[in-house]
Amino acid sequence: MLKPQQNEFRELLSLDGLWHFEVVNETYHDDISWTQRVSSKRQVPVPASYNDIFLDTDTRDHVGWVKYQRRVRVPASWAGKRYFIRCDAATHTGRAYINEKLVAEHEGGYTPFDFELTELVNAGGESQLTVAVSNELTFETIPPGKIDILEDGRKKQTYLHDFFNYSGLARSVWLYALPKSYIADATITTAVDWNQNLGSIKYQIETCSDPSGSGTDGRVIVKDEDGNAIAEAEGFHGSIDIPNPHLWQPGAAYLYDVVVELRSSSDNSVIDHYHISTGIRTIEVRGAQFLLNNRPFYFTGFGKHEDSPIRGKGHDTAYMVHDFELMNWLGANSFRTSHYPYAEEVLEYADRQGIVVIDETAAVGLNLGVTSGRFGYKAPNTWEQYNEKTRAAHERGIRELIARDKNHACVVMWSIANEPASHEEGAREYFEPLVDITRKLDPRPICFANIGMATSEKDLISDMFDVLCLNRYYGWYENCGDMRLAETHLQADLMSWQKKYGKPIIMTEYGADTIAGLHSAGVTPWSEEFQAKLLDLYHRVFDRVDAVIGEQVWNFADFQTSLLVFRVDGNKKGIFTRDRRPKAAAQVLRQRWRVQGKGEVV
């Protein structure tokens, strides 16, 4: 699953911009109905979630399908090539039509899908592209949800994740061309022989060949950051040695350019090539340590969200760069892609900036007990409600996440779920096959984010994972405002996990809702002073527990949620406001991470 790329053999055109837009309020039974002309009177930008762009609540809260439509012209110069369209994301289900023909369907709102146009349109010709997108979630989707029909006939979507269910084409759409024979995929892994100071880049290349063409051969060239070729190898799989390698380090990223070439067997001419930026680094979990380049690494950073005013989950390069600047200002060295895969541009930028990433699937909400506790009723067993189709969707999400992100140096761990009901009967049967699949797909450590109700005594699955990631809210959801009791309970909790498993522990969520500008001399909940004091409390405890190897505050910035009585304009746990203004707690983190250097490599 290679991201489209522009070079002398590959062409790339952005289809971003204004598309014609229509909310679908009826049931279509044939492709002709789905592809009827959409009026140009209502347009929507791509990439962006559509929900907050318009002012009517019917559009914002719409449950079901919408249609995006535009005209697409394949350049005449592309004759003789194969041409495709790629949607970087359609949240949560996408259907693509060329003229009146359905050409692609995809489930999973945060990973891309491609479809070929070569046999459907001619180079130089213009076609109608329609992309239908549904935001509906059920017990058979990831993330899960439930749809009820209200008494007036409207659909109401209930979902179990605490962030707004933004929908639409939130990432870019591309038209691209490839040679008749082309590089379809490439997998890069790296290793280091510390005794000989020798790095290695292992590669596996997959191709798609033109049946009418000659045979092909593979070649790989490695270039340094100055563009100098320093090593090469022949074949579609192998390993290249790099003496005295420049390592990819947190905060000091060095990226080699791995040039994958496809050559004609008849005359050895290059017929396709693809560039992959690669960092040589090693990852190992040893006892209660997480080793990055054979040195203990301490995670400092955040759980984040793709969330900004008006755009919703729409990818925004300016926000992305500014967010990384703010993380650097604080001294953060990492983040988790809570609770779904982020745009691939984010990972590319993390590769370049030396920011460590825990890459997470969209498996959030697999816990019916969260809602029941909130509203005071007894929930059914989670794993009796979700079924084999749910797990199949979950597995597909894992496969697509790893297929897309496997070559990113910044990704050091896969998180396959956030706060599942890991303490309920049936959890192990659900997760064991998913753990096995993840390990077969990639050698990186794996984890999941554990919820507080699944204590070390009750949890049924943590022995299968490499790192213990804990989400805890002592002092907020539990022992609210009681700092002494919160500190006692937090330390007891962490010590119980350390004693039982002896594995590394990362606190992947901790914090409190905070209203920017609300101050209190008495350090009361919701005030900026309370948030700062609560973080100090957690940090004292972390420093007492040897197995704690990381702290990621929830959340980087305030973000939008569904309209609930205890959420006033969204979740306010951000260290920054939604428009990225720092709260007082930012200075607490800056002092700990940057001034004291808590996250520096030992």
Automatic annotation (TrEMBL):
Positions of the Glycoside hydrolase family 2 immunoglobulin-like beta-sandwich domain: 188-281
Q: Which residues form the Glycosyl hydrolases family 2 sugar binding domain?
A: 14-179
PROSITE patterns membership: GLYCOSYL_HYDROL_F2_1, GLYCOSYL_HYDROL_F2_2
Q: What's the domain of life for this entry?
A: Eukaryota
Q: What's the protein name?
A: Beta-glucuronidase
Query: What's a BP term from Gene Ontology annotated to this protein?
Result: glucuronoside catabolic process
Q: Give the similarity note.
A: Belongs to the glycosyl hydrolase 2 family.
**EC identifiers of the protein:** 3.2.1.31
What GO molecular-function term can you cite, just one? carbohydrate binding
Kind of enzyme, top EC level?
hydrolase
InterPro entries in the cross-refs = Beta-gal/glucu_dom_sf, Galactose-bd-like_sf, GH, Glyco_hydro_2, Glyco_hydro_2_AS, Glyco_hydro_2_cat, Glyco_hydro_2_CS, Glyco_hydro_2_N
Keywords of the record, alphabetical order, are: Glycosidase, Hydrolase
User: Ranges for the Glycoside hydrolase family 2 catalytic domain?
Assistant: 283-594
User: Could you tell me which NCBIfam families the record lists for this protein?
Assistant: PRK10150.1
